[in-house]
């Protein structure tokens, strides 16, 4: 204990500040100007002071919501991966880019949160509230992102390869004989959705199916969004639908049935995420599985590294998803009457 106290004293002397100021910086408390905080951080680095995380700490996990199984599963597994390091995950469901997300972040920082995980939150938006980054930088709180980095920042991100996921979906349906393949996509300006649309279009072009803009419909990540998008796609003659989430895929199946069509006999549907109940739907959903376990493990490893003062390479690591074939996709059968 005495050795740790001496080290803090040395930091205070090097930085020319009080012990209380060093303590506030170490615990990422408010009441320290950004300039002073930078001076103390520089002194910590020059003296080789290693922050200890053995005493525990709060990690805020900001996510779009827990009604989507993929986000609740990710949040749970991130918490489990952090627990052995004495860190406790506090999950904060909030609409990405909304006031509630910013309020959650302020509250977490005021409570002394030692780190933040943005789990498909405002980090996925092209237009995000810059105050989010200002709050983090002012307190020098480490953070990592899932499914996209903040534009213009130097954040670390761990993401599913959304473009590749869309390509896998298109190629799976193409092998089954489908050529009018539509996409029920997420909203524009959402980076995972934009990447999936780009991957879809690249795969369609590579397979010689051309650019068919009417076969991409943007909607919300919901059952209702998937239903609306699929109604438009069926009106344009789609025989298969690539949905940008499992919930959208369930909406696509509902739209097909309400149009008097069977899945997969008349229309094939493939989802994205592979939530825990998708093998029990009717029919069991063919989907693209996100590597949740690997994402959670790497998020925890990266954040613990940052909290320990180790160098963690900036950038975005892409994790490869995989197709899980079940009963909602099948061979294309041309049911048009002979001429």
Please write out the topology.
Blueprint: H1 2-15, H2 19-26, H3 34-47, E1 57-63, H4 69-82, E2 87-93, H5 99-110, E3 115-119, H6 131-139, E4 143-146, E5 156-160, H7 162-175, E6 181-185, H8 191-206, E7 216-218, H9 223-235, E8 240-243, H10 246-258, E9 268-273, E10 286-289, H11 292-307, E11 315-319, E12 322-324
Parallel strand pairs: 1-2, 1-3, 3-4, 4-5, 5-11, 6-7, 6-8, 8-9, 9-10
Antiparallel strand pairs: 10-12
Helix pairs in contact: 1-2, 1-3, 4-11, 5-6, 7-8, 9-10
SS summary, helix count: 11
Gap between N and C termini:
89 Å
What overall form do the CA principal axes indicate? elongated
Poorly predicted runs: 1-6
Q: Describe the main β-sheet briefly.
A: 6 strands, parallel
The CATH superfamily name of the largest domain is Response regulator
The domain tally reads 3
The Rg value, from CA coordinates, equals 24 Å
Helix content: 40-55%
Return the CATH topology of the largest domain: Rossmann fold
- What percentage of the residues does DSSP assign to strands (E)? 15-25%
InterPro entries: HTH_LacI, LacI/GalR-like_sensor, Lambda_DNA-bd_dom_sf, Peripla_BP_I
GO molecular function: DNA-binding transcription factor activity; transcription cis-regulatory region binding
Domain HTH lacI-type: 6-60
Keywords: DNA-binding, Transcription, Transcription regulation
Keywords:
434 Repressor (Amino-terminal Domain); Rossmann fold; 6-stranded mixed beta sheet; 6-stranded parallel beta sheet; 3 domains; alpha/beta; 339 residues; 12 strands; single chain; disordered N terminus; elongated; 11 helices
